[in-house]
Every structure is written in C-alpha cells, then in structure tokens.
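Hey team,

Sharing the Cohesin subunit SA run so nobody has to redo it. Sequence (1239 residues) first:
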Amino acid sequence: MIAAPELPSDIMLFNPLLISLPSQGGKKWKKVTGEKGKGAGRMNGHYQENGMENLMLFEVVKMGKSAMQSVVDDWIEAYKTDRDMALLDLINFFIQCSGCKGVVSGEMFRNMQNSEIIRRMTEEFDEDSGDYPLTMAGPLWKKFKGSFCEFIAVLVRQCQYSIIYDEYLMDTVISLLTGLSDSQVRAFRHTSTLAAMKLMTALVNVALNLSINMDNTQRQYETERNKMVAKRANDRLELLLQKRKELQENQDEIENMMNAIFKGVFVHRYRDAIAEIRAITIEEIGMWMKLYSDAFLNDSYLKYVGWTMHDKQGEVRLKCLTALQGLYYNRELNTRLELFTSRFKDRIVSMTLDKEYDVAVQAIKLLTLVLHSTDEVLSPEDCESVYHLVYSAHRPVAIAAGEFLFKKLFSTREPEEEGAPKRRGRQSPNANLIKTTVFFFLESELHEHAAYLVDSLWESGADLLKDWECMTSLLLDDPVPGEEALTDRQETALIEIMLCTVRQAAECHPPIGRGTGKRVMTAKEKKTQLDDRTRMTELFAVTLPPLLAKYSIDSEKVTNLLQLPQFFDLDIYTTGRLEKHLEALLRQIREIVEKHTDTEVLEACSKTYHALCNEEFTIFNRVDIARSQLVDELVDKFNRLLEDFLQEGEEPDDDDAYQVLSTLKRITAFHNAHDLSQWDLFSSNFKLLNTGIENGDMPEQIVVHALQCTHYVVLWYLAKVSEGSHRKEDMVSLRKQMRMFCLMCQRYLTNVNTTVKEQAFTILCDVLLVFSHQMVSGGREQLEPLVYSPDDSLQTELLSFILHHVFIDQDDDNYGQQDDEAAKIEALHKRRNLLAAYCKLIIYNVVEMNTGADIFKQYMRYYNDYGDIIKETMSKTRQIDKIQCAKTLILSLQQLFHEMMSELGTGFDRSSSAFCGIKELARRFSLTFGLDQVKTRDAIAMLHKDGIEFAFKEPSPQGEGNPPLHLAFLDILSEFSSKLMRQDKRTVHMYLERFMTFQMALQRDDCWLPLISYRNSLQAGGDDDTMSVVSGYSSRGSSVRSKKTKAATPTTAVAAAKRRLPEAEESSSSSTDMSWQHQSMQTPVMMPSPHLTSTMMRGPGDMRGDAKRGRDDSYIGVYALPSDSHTQVTWMLAQRQQEEVRQQQERAMNYAKLRTNLQQAIRRGTGLMEEDEEPIVEDVMMSSEGRMEDLNEGMDFDTMDIDLPPSKNRRERSELKPDYFDPGSIMDESVSNFLLLYS
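Structure output:
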C-alpha cells in the first residue's frame, strides 16, 4: 500500500535490482553483472518473434506492431519471475517515454532517493531540443500517445486481480510518477502527468468492478442469510463474508492509490503552466466522474472543472465543456449536478460567445443538453443569448444554436392519434411550428437574414422546413374557425422563409458568407436533392400561379415568389402533364409586368423568363413565344410614346414622361437577361439621350434608364460579334455605336444632376474596360478593330469626376445630409463602387498609371473609407510595372508637397501638420514595398532619382547661397532610404552629389537639415553589413520621428570622405558623365579588409588625442556631439542645438585639411584606401555603463528594470520547485476569490 500523498516523494526508496544497459547502438542490449547472477536471454519479458535481438519496452510500444495484450502478458510473466528486473524495465520505460537518454542503473536504484534519481535524469536530458515523444511530429509519434495510454490501461487491467495489491509495483510506479510530475523539465512533467492520469482512470475501472462485485456479494449474502435455518448453508455464508472482506480490503487499497495520485499529481497539475497538461487533467477527471459517478460525481471534484472553465487557453476550456457534456448526457445524473449548474450556469452561457469557435460550439451543445435534461434551469435571458447565434457567420456555431433553438421552440409537437388519417396542409402538426418560426424570425428584426436562419435549422429541422405543402396552405387557405390568420407582415416573412428553404434544398450549400468552399456531395445527398427538386416542382407548379394572383400587387411578395421557378426541374411540366399550369404561370407573369414598374419586380420577371426559356426542355417554344409577344408590345409602345414625347414645339407633360419611363424600365429590365437586338433599340435610345443633351430638361430617371438600356444594346451586340462570323459590317456598326455611346456618356459627365453623372461614369468605365486591349487576349485578335483607348480629355474628365464626387467629406455629400445612418452608409457604398470602377481602369492599363497619383495621395486622409481599395490598387499596379508604380507614388507626394507650399508658402514649418502628414504618407508607401529588397531594387532606385531631381529642380527665389525651393522634400524622401540595398545607397549618394555644390556640403543651418538628414540616411548601413546598435531606437511617433543613426568611425569617415571628391576632380573622370541607369548597374563592391593599415587610419592614441584637442569632423559629422573615449558610436539628433560661429569655422577648416590629406593619400595609394572601406566593428558594443544611461535618456519610451535571479547550474535548478500555476494567469480575480469560497 502506498503512503499518504502528504509525505514527501523522496522518502520512498527504489528497491535494488538488476538492469540491462543499452549499448552504443541504442537497440542492442548487453547484460550487466549483478547480485542475481547471469542475465536471462529475455528483455522486458518480451521476445521478438522474427528472431531479431530483444528490444526495449519503449521501442516495442513505439513501433505499435505487437498486440498490447501480449506485450503486457510477457511483462507480467517477467515480473513474476524477477519483479525487480521487470519493474526497473518499467521505470526506464517511463523515463525513455519522456525523451530522456539517461538510464536508471541498479546502483542508482539502491543508493539514491527519488529526488536524487530524478535530478540525475534531468542532467542526462537533452536540452538542445524541446521535442519529446508526446510532441514530436510524424505518423509514428502521432500513434505513440495512443499506444502509451493503451499500455498503461492494459497493464492495470491484467494486474487488477493480484499484482497491483502486492504493495510493491503500484507503490513504486506512483512514487516515480508523482516525483516526475513535479519536475521542472516539461517533458518529464507532461509525460508523467499523462501516465498518472491514465493510471488513475484504469484504477477507477478497477474500483468500479470491485464495487459491483461487492454489491453482488452483499446481495448473495443477504439472500443466503434470509433463508430458513434448515436450508441455510453456513459454509457458504462464511465464504461470502470472507470474499466481501477481501473485496473491501482491495477496494480500500485501490482508494488509497487513487487518493495518492489525485493529491500528489492532479491537485498540482490541473493548474500547471502548460495548457496541454491542464487539459489532460480535466479530460481525465471528466472520465472518472462519468465512469464512477457514485464516488467522483460530487461538488468536491466538480469544482475543479468549474474553476478551469475560466482558463485563458481555449484548449483547456474545450476539455471542460466536453467533460461536462458526458455528465449532462445521462439524465440520471441531473440531480447531482444541480448545485454545479446553479453556480456555473452563467459562465457556460457566456462561453457561447467565446473567441474560440470550437469552445463556443461545445458551450452551445452543453446548454442544449442542459435544456434537454430540465427546462427550468435556463432563464429566458439565457436562451435569448443563444438564439441570436443562429445568424452567426461561423456555420458550426450557427448549426449548434439552431439545434438549441429547435429543441427549445419545437420540441413540443402535437401527438397524432394512432389510426387517424395523417393531417396535411394547414391542419398538419407542423403548422404551428412553422408559425413559430415566422414569429421568431420577425422578432429577431434581422429580416435580410432568413437564409441564415434556414441554414442554421436545416440539420435539426429539415423535415419541418421542407413541409412546403403546409406553407402554401397557410398562404392560400382560409383559416379555420377560431384560428388567427396571418398578418401581412407574417405572410411576407413566410414567403421569404419558404424561398430560402427551396433554395437550400435545390442547391445543397450554405448561403454566402458561411460556406467554406464547395463540398462533394455523397450519393445519398444527391438522391435527396433530386427527390426534393421533383417534389417542390410538382407542388409549386400548381400553387405558384394562384399565389402570384393573390399577391400580385405586393412588390416584395411577388419578387420572392417569382424566384421559385429558377429551382424547378422543368421536365416535370411535360412528364407530369402540367402544361396548363405553365400557361397560367406565364399569364400571371405578364400581368405582373404590366402592373409593376419597380425595378426589382421587373428583373425578377426577366430572370423567370430566362429560367423557363431553356432550349434543353420541350417547354422552350411555348415560353419563347410568350416572351416575344410581350417584348413586341413593349417596344411598339415605347416607340409610339417616344415619338409623341419628342415632338418639337410641345411641352411634354408628367403623364407622358411617366409612360415613357415605365415602358423604358420594363424594356431595360428584360434587356439585361435577354438579347433584344432584333428590335433595334439603339437608335431610339440614342435619340432620346441626344435630345436630353440638347434641351437639358430631360427627367433624370429617363436618362438613367436610357443610358443603361443603350449599354445593354452595345454589350449584346459585342456578344453576338464575338460568337458569330465576325462580319465586317457588324464590326463597323458595333464600333460606330460604341464610340457614339462613349461620346454621349462623356457629355453626360457634365450634367447638373448627380445621379445622371454617376450613371454615365459607371457605364463609361465598364465600356472602356470591356473594349480595352484586354479583349483581344485569348485568341480573339479578330476583335482588334473594336479596341478603344480613351484620349487625354476623357481621362482628365474621369479623374476630375472621381476627385469631386468621391473624395469629399461626409458633410459635403448630398446623400449624407439626412440623419438616417443607413442613408449615409448607402452613399458611402456608392462612392466606393465609383472609386473601384476607376481603379480597375488603372489596374488594366486603360488610363495612364500616373493618373493614380491623385488617388494614391488620398490614402491617409480617406483611409477609413477607401484605404483597402487604394492599397489593393497600389499592389496590383506594382505587379504590372514596379518602376512606373514607384514613379506614380513619388508623383503623388510631389503633388501634395506643391499643394502644401501653395497653402503655407515657401517658409513653411517642417513640424507643421501638413508636412508631417506627407511624411507619414511616405512612410506608409515605404511599408507597401515589403521586405524583399531585391524585387523592388530598381523601383526604389528610380523613386530616389525622381525625388532628388524634384528637390533640386527649382532654385531658391532668394538667390544663390540659399537652399533650393523644394529641398525639404528630401526629408520626405528619406523615408524610403531603408528600402535601398547597401550598394544602391552608395550609388544614390553619388547621384545626389551631382546636384550639390561645395558650399552646400558645408552648410549647417536649419534650412539645410533635410539635405543633411537625407545624406545621413544614405550613409547609415551603406558601408558595412552590420546594423547600427542604435538603429532600433526610433521614436514611436508616426509623424515626426527623430533620426538617430550611427556616425561613421574615423576609419569609415575617411573611407567615405575619400569617395566625395570635389566636382572639379569628378569632372575629369568619364564615370561622372554616365547615365543614372549605368550608375545603378556599376555598383561598388565591398572588398575584404587587408591586414595592412592605411596611413590615414589612426590608432587609439591618436583618437584620444583628438578627443582632447576637439573633434576632427568631416562634413559627414553633421551635429556637434561630445566624444566618448570608450566608444566610437554616435548618432544624429532630429534637431541640432544652436552652434556658435566659431565652431562652424573650425569645422570648415578641419574639413579643408581633411580633403587635402585625402588627396595626398589617394595619390600615394588609391588601392590601399579602397581596401580600407571595410569597417572596423570591434568597438560597436557599448562597454561603458554611464554611456548606456546617456543613451537611455534619449529614448522616448519607458524602460522597465528587470531583476533576474543569479544563474544556477543544472543541479541547483532541479531543486527549484516553483508553483507553475498562477491563478491570475488563467482565471479572473473574481473567480479566484470564488475558488477560495467554494473550496
């Protein structure tokens, strides 16, 4: 029997035994001599049947090829023969399963305590890799966990009748696992906890069997004792008493073992720092309560699950919910869960909104089980919090919520009497349930989401939702006496739900926003789909005409009903002899077209005709004749009305305008889905549009629909030409119509009416995109005469429209003057569509890419409204042409710079919000180039070239000696310096110096700071491959960020200064006359630093001397910083302090001396100086503590003092046993307080 768990684990000693040590091969074993004599030819009680050498128990379990029963039986035989040997094999099995390479020897087992052996194994552990068998990847290791758990379960099951009671095996194993579970090594803790929990589960099964046997024995004893004295067998009573006593002793011993594991392992590890370990403990305690509810299903154990439901890791919360589901599923256990339910119900309800969708799904399923067990626990507020989840975009959550809703609202179904005829239609049991569904849908106030509600209820209530006969009966039949009829709003909702159920049954996929891609249907699902389509066609082919007749004046109802034929199996009209119902349907559609002018209704009628006019079915001719007759009448009526409407000298009245508009709406709706080219609608519509341009008093809706109808005419003509014989006459006619229409749309861009201008712009963008050079791709070169490219004037007008109608403030928007938030959202949506239409022209190279500069410069100002569209446009244009995209970006920054100067003047403040905004936009542009500098190398170089040219383009209006007018633009350009490659920085710097004069290099005034800043950004990291130690100390501000870069060391300063020769000397070299592209290609390459020392390199003594005499600054060192004798690291400040005139003169003299020395050194040996370009990096790390404090003073972020404990060796670390569970890390404070109260 094992000691109480309160005792320290290291008090129990391992018993001495023999051990087999592994050889160097790992799998081959050799016997070590011991007290027991020669070793047997058998290892771990298991022989390999294939004749191979014996393998370790760990290897056998890992391979998983042998039946676990035989492995355990062989080990038991070995244990009976030599229990010390077999037990030591088992101990090493647990050690090796943890990934430890160490082996417990007999000497260690005899002379060391538990803690010492575990410490020795910790030292043998391979800390280089964090992987161990339970976490390793690969199919072999994925199966290992199952084999490991199975081995423990089978071992206990096979030993449950004798061996586990020998007070040796279980005591040793439990002691070992308890000690390992308290180890600081994660692998030991994880593996031993899993083993201990599985061992506990196996013991629970043993205890349950013992309990059953004791009950049976007690019942047999009572039965025997209640017999008459003459018939009573006293010897049997004594046997039963002896058996009951033995079972009781065994049960007591098993309880002691379980208590030891629970208090020694579970109580500590359920709050382990590792989520996987916590999840293991919660999963197993759920099994214990489910298997042996009499012993474990009480508040003393349930509280651990309740507390852990507040864990921060979703994996652990999920295990809590699955454990509870196993308990609530059994209704017999409900009474024992009442207190737990009352305490933790609110937490379970809140978990339905968990950020982890898997957790939310299981929480809803748990509440469904709670609802199934008792209907009184959940309040209406609790249920409502689950109801709204049926509209969730995550389908598993919605399906679970739909099951909860179905059980709550639809579980009470009217029972049908046996033998009575089945009630159908309005009298069916589903009638009230369908009404309930309608009521719920209306109360949820999410009227556009009927498809989501149907999808959520589909798996749990498909039979109810597919009772279309009952739905049509509720709509057509009169209510029975005493029954309340549906209201108009309820009928509208029922029709919408009915349409969604028909679509779900016919298409067999969830609505948009919930699908994860098309799923391959099974044969059963396909058969169900076909059966449903047949049934719905047979029903609605008969009931749809009367439904349309009843609701013909209601636009919303008719629009939904007219969508039903799109899901019909049209063969049923012929095979089912339903032609008369087809005629009735066509008559109703015709009447609806004549009655309605609403666009949605007319488009629904057009789509219904399109669905019925399928040449594959025999009903095509009948439907085509009906359609042609209808269109004939509409076109004749339109031409007649148009002729009267456009008569000269007469003022058209409102009635004539309404007649023309209503007829034009019907024709436009039909032309959207049907080819009406034979009716020649182009001439009449073009005449109407031309009159509107000339007179300027045409009603806006007539113009809008005339533009749309003409657009359809051109597109249908193009489709005919593309698929036909490409006759020259057709090509010429189409080209003429297209160009005339584009010119007409361009003229309407200047219309006074905003709606007309938006329609003209949208259609014009579509036409330009369709007839762009893209149309000849894919083997359609014969369409090349139709390609149309907009001229400069049209491009200018399109861009002007975008700038004046899209990039406007909300207050200036005509649509946003209302207080209705929905109207503002609709207006924003319309503007986004306009911007997207124009951006497509940029992406497909229909308009010049540089026109995108006016779009890109709005990126920051309108980021919330159009940021995603502009960013995607930049990405697509970069994929097309990286260099041109870069030129467009820099052009947008130049335009903003010009606008700022025109507003603030030439003497603007560089700390102003306008300048900082441009700089921030440049930073955002820089981030869009990504991290791959090789791919964007040419584009970034071209961007810097254009920026430098712009900065020096305009001379100062104040005369020579003053900075160029646009010099401040270099400060903006410096945001892109980090995207330059090291060698390109040199090339760009050389290009910059071509625009600089000797006097510019000496300037230190504030007005020259942009040039100084830009030059330093090109030099930082340009001479070596190492990063500056202070490069990360950038300010957190997004607008004004101070530049702190590493100043060049004297060596690198000399090497860099050597490359900056006067322009007089540069002019003598032919290399200076090369083009920019040649310079970018001829990039200097870093050469390895030689062992020789340049004559210009100064030793430490010289540098100390310079520190005493004053800095020998070249023009590279821009700002005056105190030199430090301990380091060569300096950086440039964002704003320099005011310097005196004497310091400027001294710097100029030093620079002149340095140039003279450089020229002499170059004459003596240019090659040597070239090799000295390799920087010296030995002193870049700061060694002075005081210097570090000075650095920290310059940082604009807070620092935190971290007090680390002194370093410990491995042996000392193993003695540390901290509490790995911090209640605050996985629980709320309120829960922690409640934990104390509950315990």
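Residues 186-225 form the longest helix (40 residues).

Ping me if you want the raw files.
A.
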